[in-house]
Design a protein that fits this description.
There is one protein chain. By secondary structure, the chain is α+β, with helices and mostly antiparallel strands. The chain is built from six helices and eight strands. The strands form two sheets. The protein has a six-stranded antiparallel β-sheet. A two-stranded antiparallel sheet has the order 2-6. The two termini are 24 Å apart. 17% of the residues are buried.
């Protein structure tokens, strides 16, 4: 399972979005034919997790060593805002209206270009205005690789 690269696609008026062909090519039918879970994220984007990754993420949250009340509140919010979806024909996903509003800012739009950013085990959908662009990603890569170069080298070697 792998999602990588930056892609642009159109979110149509009905909330349908075709997943990038690169994502389809780099994943098996077992991943693509199972549910995906879409969650709003604090930066104004949507995180789309394949079924296996969603369950792995929820298990990790449940194992967190935090106060029980905080964990319950987080899980309640997480489960209450997450939508289960399956791919439609032509590798399209239907984004629920309340989740579209999270990315778009309103439910008044015609076909809207969105950015789809691969994040290895999941991907993000965001409004183009929220995307820092390829140069922004390259700057972040430079910034963090200069900070973490020694640590990454030790782990990698």
């Amino acid at each position: 399972m792998s999602f990588s690269g930056t892609h642009r696609n159109v979110l149509d008026k009905k909330g349908r979005l075709v997943i990038p062909s690169a994502f389809r090519k780099s994943n098996t039918d077992d991943v693509l034919n199972r549910p995906f879970w879409v969650t709003p994220e604090k930066e104004g984007c949507l995180i789309v997790r394949p079924d296996h990754e969603w369950h792995r993420y929820k298990s990790a949250v449940k194992r967190l060593q935090v106060p029980l009340k905080e964990k319950r509140e987080y899980l309640r919010a997480l489960n209450g805002t997450t939508e289960r979806i399956t791919l439609l024909q032509q590798s399209r996903m239907m984004i629920a209206p309340r989740l579209r509003t999270w990315v778009v800012g309103s439910d008044e739009y015609e076909n809207l270009e969105v950015v789809i950013l691969g994040e290895d085990e999941h991907f993000e959908i965001m409004h183009p205005d929220a995307f820092e662009g390829d140069l922004g990603l390259i700057e972040k890569l430079r910034e963090y690789s200069s900070k973490w170069d020694d640590v990454i080298s030790e782990e990698y070697l």
